[in-house]
Specification:
about 350 residues, alpha/beta, Diaminopimelate Epimerase, Chain A, domain 1, 2 domains, six-stranded parallel sheet, six-stranded mixed sheet, 12 helices, globular, binds manganese (II) ion
Length: about 350
Amino acid sequence: MERVDIELIKGFEQLIKNSSKSIVLVPHRNPDGDAMGSVFGLWRVLKNAGLKVQIVSPTKYPEFYHWMDGHEEVINFSHHPKQSARALDESDLLICMDFNQLSRLGDMQPLVESYTGKKVLIDHHPYPGNFTDLVISDITYSSTAELIFSVLQSTEFASYIDRNAATSFFTGIMTDTGSFDFNVSNPNTFEVVAQLTRMGIDQPDIHSRVYDNYSVDRMRLMGFCLSNRMTVYPEYHAACMYITLEDQKAFNFKTGDNEGFVNMPLSIKGIVFSVLFTEKEKYIKASFRSKGEFAVNEVSEKYFNGGGHRNAAGGELYASLAETLAQFEKLLPEFEDRIKQSVNKKQRRK
Ligand SMILES: [Mn+2]
């Protein structure tokens, strides 16, 4: 069953076939498991098909994805801007994966904006921007990895999906669904996982490489935050956690060390809305999660210059941590009714 218009898929296939130079794959900045899984999976497939492919990432990505097939090939724009520009110059097709706005590229935005070759967007976030020649975007997919796998299945490149590519696609699906905890209402997700399983992927090993790969510092930071940096608002079914720059110093914070923290309060009985604020040098990074119908992307869009999915969104605020926390407490009453509707619906379903 096709969910993506077959004409779009054929157009995508044709753009790849028309490429006579090389193809560049680009994830969003601070790429997560889905962004890298999608990029690595497609990279492997196109390489297996004998094409010249390069990966340019706007920034580095967490070490617990460094085991993935293709890691050695990634050009990090923030460390190697000239090499990145050369890779784009030498290519005639650029494929943007897992983001909907050019601003998600951070400092790499101008480079992609001025790109003269063909551009494609493959994504599953709402409101895809109009900055590419072809857009394959569908919010009903759990992840970009599931989407690109499904798209490839309808092309001549399907036969080039091997165990390595399948492992990368599975990593994307697993991480974007919180290990099949959310964004999994469409059965296609499990059908794709079934196909990946037939290709010989080792799910326990993949899960372990991603989730059992944390440092002692990260584990202690988590304990510290749960004890000292989490406020629960039972009347709003909400919880808020924050990490200061000082905390990060004290626990030798590395990129990705706070991954998953925002999900933890959701395992408290009655909590359906969770937020994590991470202090950065110049701004506050915000992550939002919810259970049920309460749409956190609306909160993020309205108050935190961000967006995302209904149950998982992000944003940033150029304010102090104290101001950010005050802002959060102030907005709770505005969303109280919607949060409570979400809680009631969930209870009714049981
Ligand atoms: Mn994603």
